[in-house]
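User: Structure with zinc ion, tokens only please.
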Amino acid sequence: MTDAAFQKCINPDCGAEYDCGQALFKCPACGELLDAQYNWDKIKVPSKLSQFAKRWASRDNRLDFSGVWRFRELLNFCQDKYKVTIGEGQTICEQNDAVAEYVDMRPGCLYLQYEGLNPSGSFKDNGMAAAFSHAMMIGAESCACASTGNTSAAVALYAHSCGLKCTVFIGSGRIAFGKLSQGMDYGAQTIQILGDFDDCMRQVQDVCTKLGLYLLNSVNPFRLEGQKTIMYRIIERLGWEVPDWIIVPGGNLGNSSAFGKAFFELKELGLIARIPRMAIINSTGADTLTDLVNNKKLLWNKGHVEQAIIDDYYADLTARDFSPHTCASAIEISRPVNLIKCLRAIDICDGVVRAVTDEEICDAKAIIGKYGLGCEPASAATVAGLKHLRTEGLIARDERVACVLTGHPLKDPNLTVNYHKEKQGQFSNPPVEAANDLDEIIKLMK
Ligand SMILES: *Cc1c(COP(=O)(O)O)cnc(C)c1O
Ligand SMILES: [Zn+2]
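Assistant:
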């Protein structure tokens, strides 16, 4: 442990504090989510963000090589000896003018933060590097998570790297094949529950409490500390300037929560002059956040969130036996565990929330594949959402926008093959069948 960090309940009426030597995952006093917080005066934070760039020159140091621990002063909750890294966060933030044209933005204005380059192929690795470091610090021996797929892949990979026993819980039939294959390949025990992700999430929390397992879902505050670094790397790419907008898909709302916290802290520390706006994009088939914020007017309200609105909403989902459905399986979640923290992030970043259809997601994904580095469906919700926000005029043509492409295209090959082969969308690029004959083959080539 460092004496500079502690855990704190996000409920202002409680505000209980705990040291970092325990795995809690919710406030024992009131049940609300916990944050990692810092006594900044005890940490030697560089006076300018650009000083972090020096670490590119010492990449034989394993912590400097990590795209998470390169920024270690900003997530200073454990000593170096506990820090886990397998080379996460080596990402590219690509300026992409062809995708910019698709959403009617000026050349030079759109950036795609490609998190598919992480060791397990999604942004989750940023969080796992931090969470597993905490697990090592407190001497955990076994761990578990509920997952729509990418969490299980990342957890399985980090667990065997640290020598932790690992069980992953997935819903039945909802997981993309690439992700399912990873969990098994990396040696995790996989338990498929007859239910959806929200069912898995409820079960795993009870299992972890009962059996004393270390929980790696995004209710883990240390995991979110690792995910803050995605924002640091975007700012780094922009010459340490903040963009005008960050766009992120919304599932369990860990990323959006972490990003809001990252910007709040940077501003407090005087390391940035202003906070960018954030757009969180749901799928219309799993749009709890959109509905609660845009229709039910749910607000952070300085931490005094109207819980009755949420309770009524969830009671109605239960009464209707509602299960979310979207092709973007990573965001197929109707009871996001970080909802309250996300409301805080929306408040910090003057955020907006939108929902896009599966059709819009698949078309945007095809464009990102054709002109960019590709991504999985949930990631493409960002570009589909940006298209909405451009049409509305909320985002101007010449603002600087960074979309977080959360996962690798090979995570969900079935969806991509079906889209193209079955001509499901306007950008389908189906294969052509040819007779085994040279002239016939040449005739078919464009
Ligand atoms: C986990 C995940 C999401 C959802 O992120 P949250 O932090 O849960 O909102 C989006 N895209 C991909 C690829 C994911 O793996
Ligand atoms: Zn509390």
